[in-house]
Structure formats: structure tokens, C-alpha cells
Amino acid sequence: MKKDMKKKIIVGNWKMNPIALKEAMKIFSSVRRTASKLSSTHVVICPPLLYVQKFASSRAVSPISIGAQNVFFEEQGHFTGEISSSMLKNIGVNHVIVGHSERREMGETDEIISKKVQAVLEMGIHPILCVGEKERDVHGLYLDVLKSQIKNSLAKTTKKLIGQVIMAYEPVWAIGAKEPMDPAIIQEMAIFVRKVISDMFGHENAMKTLVLYGGATNFRNASDIINLGKVDGLLVGRESVNVPGFVELLKAVDAV
Ligand code: PEP
């Protein structure tokens, strides 16, 4: 890998899987073994919170970053069931998925997401900010949806901190689907995401911002999406807990 080349990022979102720690440790060890052999790819694993602490405190964690799947925006206090960005930072977490469509579906608004993004950034953690349209229409209204999600979710962010944000463009209709979005369209959408960021934070900052794609990725389509879609990496759901598939996906991406 050339010195000035950015590493590709693969984020594994385990969602609410697996149901036992033993299985989680098995998956994690296999991924770690593969991750330690990659040269141009950085792996971020976002397991359920119960396992986050276990993995984040493990001394052998080095080739993998540990991320959380959610966070609350307040630092501490009477917020039953919530976890703050300071708590995550204190156990060694350096990435947090914010605004996943499954959480938006549970009622999370752009206003809440913007507070989470800010809380995470202030703690020196990278928010992996998920945005994406639910459906595409012939009039291109989905572009307005995306633009407003980005603008509102980053409303509290400053030029100084925007470089820490990792954007994850995930068309909701492709999540859990059989096929991903066509790589040529992914490229257009990644340009659009950067254009909105450029309007808000300037061209230079937009060019530095990492843009990932998520939705129905696997070892067969991953390298095409990176190559032709011109994204900086992938946010992987289902395939991230399927060890053989995920290991192949990591190798395929590393070979791009
Ligand atoms: C996701 O939930 O963010 C996702 C991309 O899921 P999948 O890869 O399973 O489509």
C-alpha cells in the first residue's frame, strides 16, 4: 500500500446477534485473525453492547476497532437504559453507528441524531452517520430526503469536527435485500453526499470525509462496489456475522 493512500473501512454491524457470548467470541476471533493480515483495509466491528466491553478491553484487539451501535446524547444522569459517549470512550470504543434506519424506524429523529453526532464527536469518537432514502421516485425527490437528512443530522457539527464523521450511505430499500444498489449509482450518490457536505463545510472538508455504502453487500459484490462505486468502504449487516462470507469479503476488499 502506498504511504499516502487511505485505508478502506469495513464496518460490521452485528445488530442484535449472536445471542450468546461464546458464539460472539468465536466470530470475533476469526475476524481478528483475518483482519491482522489485511494491508489496506481497516475493520470496525460493532457488536451488541454487552460484547463491546469484552472486545474493547481485550488486549489482543489491535487490528480491529470496536464500535457501538447506538449512544445517548447526554453525558450522565437519570436516563434509564441509556449509555453515554463518555462511557463508551472510557472502555475504549472509537466508533459509533448513529442514525441507522432501524433506529430511525423506532422514532429517532434528525434532531436526536444531530445531538448524538455532536456528543460523540466531542468525546473524540467517530460517528458513523447513516443516511439513505426509503424509496426512489422518478422525480428525484429522494435527493431532497437525503439532503435534508444530512443537513439536519449534521446541524450541530462544526468545520473543525466534520473530518471525524464517517458517512454511511444506506438506501433503506437495499438493507436486508437480495441485491445491492448498482455500483454506478452508488458512485453518483456518494458524489451527492459529498456535495451536500461541501455546501455545509467547504470543498476541502467534503473531500476528506469518508463515505461508505451499506445495503446487501457480500463477498461477491464487495470489490465491484468499492471499485466502481468509488466509496471508501462498506457498512455490512448480515454478512458480518457469517464468518466464511465476511472473511472472504475482507480479503476481496483488501485486494482492490
Ligand atoms: C445494515 O443494516 O446496515 C445493512 C447494510 O444490512 P445488510 O448488509 O444486511 O443489507
User: Which overall shape is indicated by the principal axes computed on the Cα atoms?
Assistant: globular
Following the backbone from N to C, one meets helices and strands in this order, namely EHEHEHEHHEHEHHEHEH
Number of strands: 8
Total helices: the number is: 10
> Helix proportion of residues, in percent?
40-55%
Give the ligands present. phosphoenolpyruvate
- Give the N-to-C terminal Cα separation: 11 Å
Estimated share of beta-strand residues: 15-25%
Radius of gyration: 17 Å
Average pLDDT metric: 94
SS content category: alpha/beta
Spans of at least 5 consecutive residues whose pLDDT stays below 50 are none
The largest sheet has its strands arranged as 1-2-3-4-5-6-7-8
The main pleated sheet reads as: 8 strands, parallel, barrel
